[in-house]
Write a structure and sequence with these properties.
single chain; alpha/beta; Ubiquitin-like (UB roll); 14 helices; 19% strand; binds guanosine-5'-diphosphate; binds magnesium ion
Length: 357
């Protein structure tokens, strides 16, 4: 299972700088066959301190973190939905992603030209928001046309769908987002349109280097969230350093956590993802699932045959696994649970799936 986040924003806001920093710390592409050769796609490890702890307990030979993919999506400018700039080329890329990270320029560097004169976060966010809504408007209009034909042919479903589409159209026409206009059932009915304004969005405020020392400074609290505050410039410098030197630089700047790590965590959360873990001598590994996933489907992430072959899950919380020095110790202390088909996996579960062979 692989989840992806598209980085969007006006030109010159720091998207590529951020993306390059992300890919610097990204995994060896060779380990991830699903990664294409596309230079605009980066497969990035989700940092997880629990992995090293578990690996120490299990004396694992290797650690395999879970990943998310980031796409550097260029070409979003005012008028993009009508063919300005790279025009609709960006649309084909952005449709595929699960969530959107909008980079918003807050930094004021006079050497970096702003497409509309000067940084104005609120207005920049609006410009992008309207473009996304207009792009969706086209998609919806096309579908209304199809639905009309089918409705004329007596298709009852098409009649129902048309009502929803018309509602979406009215909202999008005013620059409103489909997510705000349609209720959950209506959204489910138009899921296959992959509307951009139904995707979850994270706002990445690219602030001045000096602002990193005092993060809330310089970002208007009325700007939308969920938000991450970063300095793409600092992140690109950190990405060039060894882990040790990067730690030193972060300490000097008063940063507890790199902006990239914050961005990756926030994206993970935005997508509603959680991690379960497997840990043994061969490897300690993190696996990504959507929150609420039941045990058999989680087993299916490890191996597609496991879902049908599922018997039960032997589950230990990560904390107990570490506290009792592994599975045997956890079992002795009654910290190993047997869970069946209806068990909803929890973040941090260390699992051993029992399956028929
Ligand atoms: N001062 C400063 N400059 C930045 C920052 N992020 C990006 N830039 C500069 O802004 C310009 C455009 O950045 P780029 O990442 O290519 O923007 P994109 O068009 O959004 O992909 C480059 O000259 C970057 O060096 C930042 O955080 N601070
Ligand atoms: Mg770029």
């Amino acid at each position: 299972m692989s989840f992806s986040i598209g980085i969007v924003g006006l030109p010159n806001v720091g998207k590529s700088t951020l993306f390059k920093a992300l890919t610097k710390k990204s995994v060896l592409i060779a380990n991830y066959p699903f990664a294409t050769i596309d230079p605009n796609v980066g497969v990035v490890e989700v940092p997880d301190a629990r992995l090293a702890e578990l690996a120490r307990v299990s004396k694992s030979e290797k650690i395999i973190p879970t990943t998310v993919q980031f796409y550097d999506i260029a070409g979003l400018v005012r008028g993009a939905s009508t063919g300005e700039g790279l025009g609709n080329q960006f649309l084909s890329h952005i449709r595929e992603v699960d969530a959107i990270a909008q980079v918003v320029r807050v930094f004021s560097d006079p050497n970096v030209i702003h497409v509309h004169g000067k940084p104005d976060p609120k207005s920049d966010i609006e410009v992008i928001g309207v473009e996304l809504a207009l792009a969706d408007l086209k998609t919806v209009e096309k579908r209304i046309h199809d639905a009309n034909e089918k409705a004329r042919g007596g298709d009852k479903e098409a009649v129902k769908l048309k009502v929803i589409l018309e509602k979406a159209k009215a909202g999008l026409n005013q620059g409103k987002w489909a997510r705000g206009v349609l209720n959950e059932d209506e959204q489910a009915a138009v899921r296959d349109l992959h509307l951009l304004t139904m995707k979850p969005v994270l706002y990445v405020y690219n602030i001045d280097e000096s602002g990193i020392m005092n993060q809330e400074l310089g970002v208007d609290p009325t700007l939308p969230g969920p938000r991450v505050l970063i300095s793409a410039k600092i992140e690109s410098e950190l990405a060039e350093l060894s882990a040790e030197d990067a730690q030193g630089m972060m300490k000097d700047l008063g940063m507890n956590e790199s902006g990239l790590d914050q961005l990756i965590y926030a994206s993970y959360k935005l997508l509603g993802l959680i991690t379960f873990l497997t840990s043994g001598e061969m490897e300690t590994r993190a696996w990504t699932i959507v929150k609420g996933t039941k045990a058999p489907q989680a087993a299916g992430v490890i191996h597609s045959d496991f879902e049908k072959a599922f018997i039960r899950a032997e589950v230990i919380t990560c904390a107990d696994f570490i506290k009792y020095h592994g599975e045997a110790g956890a079992k002795e202390h009654g910290a190993l649970r047997l869970e069946g088909k209806e068990y909803a996996m929890q973040d941090g579960d260390v699992v051993h799936f029992r399956v028929t062979v």
